[in-house]
Design goal:
mainly beta; four-stranded antiparallel sheet; 10 strands
Length: 112
């Protein structure tokens, strides 16, 4: 059974940083592209960043220059380092196997 468990969210002030983690199990993590997606109130699910199985990365929109996606295949873990967080980054963040979100996600709230 495929499981993706995201963690690391929380409340942070504007300009702050957070690192999200996602532990994967039930499949060969190293063979798959992975992604981070987020869902905000009033918006649909949006893609934030992807990382291929060869470590090539891609970022979407405001994530460029502020977020860094990485992976540790030995630990079957995906990461998202987020810096200079802004209120518009407030969302539930999901990790994705490919571009398919999985699991319950982790809440990130950016507020003063």
């Amino acid at each position: 059974e495929v499981q993706l468990q995201a963690s690391g969210g929380g409340l942070v002030q504007p300009g702050g940083s957070l690192r999200l983690s996602c532990v994967a199990s039930g499949y060969a993590f190293k063979n798959f592209a992975m992604s981070w997606l987020r869902q905000t109130q009033g918006k649909g699910l949006e893609r934030v960043a992807d990382i291929m199985n060869d470590d090539k990365t891609a970022y979407v929109g405001s994530a460029k220059g502020r977020f860094t996606i990485s992976r540790d295949n030995g630990k079957s873990t995906l990461y998202l380092q987020m810096s200079d967080l802004q209120p518009e980054d407030t969302a539930v963040y999901y990790c994705g196997k490919g571009l398919t979100p999985w699991g319950q996600g982790t809440q990130v709230t950016v507020s003063s």
